[in-house]
C-alpha cells in the first residue's frame, strides 16, 4: 500500500510545474546529485570521461520536458547542439538523448521537427547518434510518426527511440520498428489501465517478450534495466539463440548499480550509462523515486550525506 501511494505521489509531483520551476533555483537537492551529473555541459563531459575510463559507454541527456514557449525550445535545441559538439571536441564515447517536448512538440509539430533536424545534422557532423526518449502515452504515437519522418523523409539513419514495455501496444510497435535501434524499458510514467499494464509481473513478461522480438529480428537492441534477473535472462537467451554481443547492449542510469555495470563490462558485454544533467532535474528525479520504494531511502541517504 505504501509503495503504491508513494509512487503515485512522486509521479504527481514530477509534473508539478511550480515545483519544477522552483527546483531550477535550488541547485541539486534531496540527494539528486547522486543521480544527476551536474548542471553544465562541462560537468557532464567530465562524468563521461570517468565512466569511459572504466570501459562504460554513455548517453548524455540534457534534462527538460513539457516546454511551452518557442524561446525555451530554441534554447534547448541550441544546447543539445552544443552538447554534441562538446562530445566531439572532448573525444569521449557518448550518444545524446532528447525529449521532443523539450524541443517544442507541444507548441507546433513542424517547429519540433525542424529543431530535431538541426540536432541530427549536428550529430551527423560529429559522427554521433541521437535517441529520442519516449515520454507519456499522449506523446507515443506522434513520437513514432516523427521518428519515421526523420528517417524516411529527411534521410537520418542516426536516430532511434524508446519503447516502454508497460504499454499494451509495445509488442506491435517493436515489430513495426524492425531494423531500427531501440532502447527497451519497462516505463516510468503513470498510465491508465486502459493503455498500460499495472501489474509488475505482466510488465516484466511483456518486457522479455519485446526484447526477444527485437533481438530475433536482427535489430540492434538496448536493454535498459537494473534488474539482474532480467539481465541474466537476456544473457541466456542471447547465448541460446546465437545472438552476437555486437547486436545488443545493456543500459543503466547514472548512479544506480555501479558494481553490476562494471561486472558486465568485465564479462565482455557492452554497457552504456544514461547520464542526465542540467538544472531542470526535478521531474526526472521524482520519477526515479517513484520507480522503486528503495530509491527513496537511497535519496535520503544522499541528502544527509551531502549536508
Automatic annotation (TrEMBL):
<dbReference type="InterPro" id="IPR002872">
    <property type="entry name" value="Proline_DH_dom"/>
</dbReference>
<feature type="binding site">
    <location>
        <begin position="225"/>
        <end position="226"/>
    </location>
    <ligand>
        <name>FAD</name>
    </ligand>
</feature>
<feature type="binding site">
    <location>
        <position position="164"/>
    </location>
    <ligand>
        <name>FAD</name>
    </ligand>
</feature>
<keyword id="KW-0547">Nucleotide-binding</keyword>
<dbReference type="Pfam" id="PF01619">
    <property type="entry name" value="Pro_dh"/>
</dbReference>
<feature type="binding site">
    <location>
        <position position="287"/>
    </location>
    <ligand>
        <name>substrate</name>
    </ligand>
</feature>
<dbReference type="InterPro" id="IPR008219">
    <property type="entry name" value="PRODH_bac_arc"/>
</dbReference>
<dbReference type="InterPro" id="IPR015659">
    <property type="entry name" value="Proline_oxidase"/>
</dbReference>
<keyword id="KW-0285">Flavoprotein</keyword>
<comment type="pathway">
    <text>Amino-acid degradation; L-proline degradation into L-glutamate; L-glutamate from L-proline: step 1/2.</text>
</comment>
<dbReference type="GO" id="GO:0000166">
    <property type="term" value="F:nucleotide binding"/>
</dbReference>
<keyword id="KW-0274">FAD</keyword>
<dbReference type="InterPro" id="IPR029041">
    <property type="entry name" value="FAD-linked_oxidoreductase-like"/>
</dbReference>
<feature type="binding site">
    <location>
        <position position="99"/>
    </location>
    <ligand>
        <name>substrate</name>
    </ligand>
</feature>
<feature type="binding site">
    <location>
        <position position="288"/>
    </location>
    <ligand>
        <name>substrate</name>
    </ligand>
</feature>
<feature type="binding site">
    <location>
        <position position="200"/>
    </location>
    <ligand>
        <name>FAD</name>
    </ligand>
</feature>
<keyword id="KW-0642">Proline metabolism</keyword>
<feature type="binding site">
    <location>
        <begin position="186"/>
        <end position="188"/>
    </location>
    <ligand>
        <name>FAD</name>
    </ligand>
</feature>
<dbReference type="GO" id="GO:0004657">
    <property type="term" value="F:proline dehydrogenase activity"/>
</dbReference>
<keyword id="KW-0560">Oxidoreductase</keyword>
<dbReference type="GO" id="GO:0010133">
    <property type="term" value="P:L-proline catabolic process to L-glutamate"/>
</dbReference>
<feature type="domain" description="Proline dehydrogenase">
    <location>
        <begin position="44"/>
        <end position="298"/>
    </location>
</feature>
<protein>
    <recommendedName>
        <fullName>proline dehydrogenase</fullName>
        <ecNumber>1.5.5.2</ecNumber>
    </recommendedName>
</protein>
<feature type="binding site">
    <location>
        <position position="134"/>
    </location>
    <ligand>
        <name>FAD</name>
    </ligand>
</feature>
